[in-house]
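tokens incoming
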């Protein structure tokens, strides 16, 4: 079965308010084996809500409305759904009494406009809302030979979640055919999106029963594998088989097969090897250290380091020779190497990272353009230096640089 979620509210079409309810509902529906095929956000305009509802009913089996059940003039979900389905609204005396009782219990004066929250679609089942005055509604019927389920839920998250779990979940259980959804997330670094897809597309195209989505971020490609089956075992086997074939093709470009971030994978390797790490960061401004310490228990392997933005601090904190800075400049291979070696020696760690570059948008030159970054990893057996030219804004370049630095550690310890 395919579901659609329609979030109603003009505030959701501004930069100031985000729809998070649909994320919760998607998770709950997926657990039932229901795929969410569409999400729509529509403003507080009756014509637009009706248009969105008609389109949704033509393409989905389960339609869930979020919001627009309040007492004000711009709360139009009930009226819009009634118009779409050609149904009358009736005022339910029991719901009205419940609303009046709620106001009385809190010592509030009930406004006249609150009575419209007792309006129920003809044939719908009211869904009690223990946390607010707007009840939900459930209506089901057949259209074009198929059963359609429509659910109206209040917008406030604490009301929506409690009502869904108490009044909707079991009803859906009884209606939805038993299906199970399995997912896998492979994370790849060190190659671009197009290069990755060129290698894996011939593989995932053979798996017509598994949906594959490719997401690209700075220094990171994610492959989301998703399928449905009559049993969780069958679903899991399908995504696992595809994941295995992709991993075999991409080799150590795949750093995670369960969605873990790179810093988590690095932590595993450092602990497995009983290794410690320190950092000397210039252009990343502590981002590598921040990512490492975002993992609980990182004190077992991450000793610390320094943000050495100025040349003076590169000399004082990481023992970079002054003549290297004078001859080659701060953004150079010799300085990156000296940063890694100096911080490793100062901190007494197994490995040391040095990062220096031009994050932009200013500070670049013909010889050293914005995006040029040198990464160094020092260890007992020597020091490796990698030069990269990243593109994008300052934030993107800094993230790329931190990703490259962490991946050097991963590959060193693999």
């Amino acid at each position: 079965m395919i579901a659609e979620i329609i979030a109603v509210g003009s505030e959701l079409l501004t930069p100031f308010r985000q729809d998070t309810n649909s994320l919760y509902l998607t998770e709950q529906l997926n657990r039932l084996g229901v795929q969410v095929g569409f999400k729509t956000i529509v403003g507080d305009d009756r014509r637009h809500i009706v248009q969105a509802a008609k389109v949704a009913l033509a393409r989905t089996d389960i339609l869930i409305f979020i919001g627009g059940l309040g007492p004000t003039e711009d709360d139009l979900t009930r009226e819009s759904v009634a118009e779409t389905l050609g149904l009358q609204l009736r005022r339910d005396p029991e719901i009205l009494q419940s609303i009046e009782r709620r106001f009385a219990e809190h010592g509030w004066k009930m406004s006249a406009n609150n009575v419209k929250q007792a309006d129920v679609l003809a044939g719908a089942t009211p869904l009690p809302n223990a946390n607010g005055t707007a009840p939900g509604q459930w209506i089901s019927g057949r259209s074009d030979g198929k059963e359609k389920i429509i659910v109206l839920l209040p917008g406030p998250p604490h009301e929506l979640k409690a009502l869904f779990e108490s009044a909707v979940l079991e009803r859906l259980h009884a209606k939805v055919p038993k299906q199970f959804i399995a997912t896998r997330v492979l994370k790849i670094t060190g190659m671009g999106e197009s290069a990755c897809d060129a290698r894996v597309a011939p593989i995932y195209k053979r798996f017509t029963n598994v949906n594959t989505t490719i997401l690209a971020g700075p220094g990171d490609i994610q492959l989301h594998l998703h399928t449905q089956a009559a049993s969780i075992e069958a679903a899991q086997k399908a995504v696992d088989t595809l994941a295995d074939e992709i991993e075999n093709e991409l080799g150590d470009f795949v750093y995670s097969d369960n969605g873990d971030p790179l810093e988590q994978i690095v932590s595993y390797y450092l602990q497995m090897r009983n290794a410690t790490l320190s950092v000397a960061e210039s252009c990343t401004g502590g981002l590598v250290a921040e990512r490492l310490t975002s993992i609980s228990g990182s004190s077992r392997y991450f000793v610390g380091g320094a943000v050495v933005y100025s040349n003076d601090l590169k000399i004082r904190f990481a023992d970079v020779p002054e003549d290297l800075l004078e001859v080659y400049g701060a953004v150079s291979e010799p300085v990156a190497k000296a940063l890694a070696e100096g911080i490793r020696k100062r901190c007494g760690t197994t490995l040391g990272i040095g990062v220096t570059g031009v994050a932009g948008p200013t500070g670049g030159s013909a010889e050293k353009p914005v995006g040029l970054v040198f990464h160094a990893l020092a260890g007992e057996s020597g020091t490796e230096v990698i030069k990269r030219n990243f593109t994008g804004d300052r934030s993107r370049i800094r993230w790329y640089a931190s990703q490259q630095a962490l991946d050097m550690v991963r590959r060193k310890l693999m």
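note: The mean pLDDT is 96.
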